[in-house]
Specification:
The complex is a heterodimer of chains A (about 110) and B (about 110).
Chain A (H helix, E strand, L loop, with lengths): L4 E3 L2 E4 L5 E6 L6 E7 L6 E7 L2 E5 L7 E4 L6 E5 L8 E8 L7 E3 L3 E5 L1
Parallel strand pairs in A: 2-11
Antiparallel strand pairs in A: 1-3, 3-8, 4-5, 4-9, 5-6, 7-8, 9-10, 9-11
Chain B lengths: L3 E4 L2 E5 L4 E7 L5 E7 L5 E7 L2 E5 L2 E6 L4 E6 L8 E8 L5 E3 L3 E6 L1
Parallel strand pairs in B: 2-11
Antiparallel strand pairs in B: 1-3, 3-8, 4-5, 4-9, 6-7, 7-8, 9-10, 9-11
Classes of the chains: A mainly beta (about 110), B mainly beta (about 110).
Chain lengths: ~110, ~110
């Protein structure tokens, strides 16, 4: 499968716990994006990487959130001290180099914080 | 006011009907995307366009840059077209700004 993959697909955690999600982009894509989608809403931008450099972060990304892409390939998104308001679908997308690149989305990780 | 507005929010249709979903935006863009999202969350990109019109099968997407408006048309709609259709604009910094989506249900 050469698409964008995300793991885990579902995560249920208790408030206060830390969680980490992984995204594996399409191999030749150098741009990687994280989005968050709450029920009934469109996705919202969180952050994006070009290779290993994190180029932009949304103000939605509080201090409890951190994202990395250490070798310019897969990326991780960690949420520390989870809150019930963090419950959402976390989507990853990757794109080809250049402004014309179309973004391809992964299946998402659905987080439920109890 | 959201930077990307879609209408309608919900749409029901009988199989075979012609469907139009509209998208207006208020920011400068480098491209506009139409996306399809099925229950369970998976998002599929239908179109990326920066001018004019694109057609793929029964789907047609148009954009008017001067009016900051795009439309997605579905001809001869089918129950399998039932999904959420999302308009997203690509900002100058390359991130996508999404509309809230249009939930389409097509009944046989």
């Amino acid at each position: 499968d050469t698409g964008v993959s995300q793991n885990p697909r579902h995560k249920i955690t208790k408030r206060g716990q830390n969680v980490t999600f992984r995204c594996d982009p399409i191999s030749e894509h150098n741009r990687l994006y994280w989005y968050r989608q709450t029920l009934g809403q469109g996705p919202e931008f969180l952050t994006y990487f070009q290779n290993e450099a994190q180029l932009e972060k949304s103000r939605l990304l509080s201090d409890r959130f951190s994202a990395e892409r250490p070798k310019g390939s897969f990326s991780t998104l960690e949420i520390q001290r989870t809150e019930q308001g963090d419950s959402a679908m976390y989507l990853c997308a990757s794109s080809e180099p250049g402004l014309a690149g179309q973004q391809f989305f992964g299946p998402g990780t659905r987080l439920t914080v109890l | 006011k959201n930077e990307v507005e879609q209408s309608p929010q919900n749409l029901t249709a009988q199989e075979g009907e012609f469907i139009t979903i509209n998208c207006s935006y208020s920011v400068g863009i480098s491209a506009l995307h139409w996306l399809q999202q099925h229950p369970g969350g998976g998002i599929v990109s239908l179109f990326m366009l920066s001018s004019g019109k694109k057609k793929h099968g029964r789907l047609i997407a148009t954009i008017n840059i001067q009016e900051k408006h795009s439309s997605l048309h579905i001809t001869a709609s089918h129950p399998r077209d039932s999904a959420v259709y999302i308009c997203a604009v690509r900002s100058s910094t390359d991130k996508l700004i999404f509309g809230t989506g249009t939930r389409l249900q097509v009944f046989p």
